Amino acid sequence: MAQRPVAEGLFDWPSHEPRLIGSRCADCDLVAFPTYDYCPRCGSTDVAVTRLSRRGTLWTWTRQWFQPKNPPYAGREAPADFKPFAVGYVELPEARIEARLVGGIDEPLEIGMPMELTVVPFMTDEDGTEVLTFAFRPVAPATSAAEA
Ligand SMILES: [Zn+2]
Residue 104 sits in a domain of what CATH number? Predict the structure, then answer.
């Protein structure tokens, strides 16, 4: 099946270990995601593309029970096909990122739990191309040891 990222320049794709792509300010060291041509904190234009860490911790989260308006929500499924999802902020070493959280709506989530970046199908274009977006999933300690 053909696939495409939901937007260019958000994350590495294709990749077995995708990372989010942000920008780091050379003057104040702020890391911003997605990338900016200038620093959103100090206004410096001395910024460079940087890859963010794949792992962090869940900072806070909530659940999206109803279909958001399109736009800004990019999904085009029929209201009856909408599946509630969890969304949250994940604290990476470089920055706090807002993202979808994978897993069912009943997935147990806890502030502070370890999370890892993943890339998941998000919707399908009219020509059948699968559209991918980034998300975070809980990392079980045993799983992370096996993957390391
Ligand atoms: Zn700056």
Answer: 2.40.50
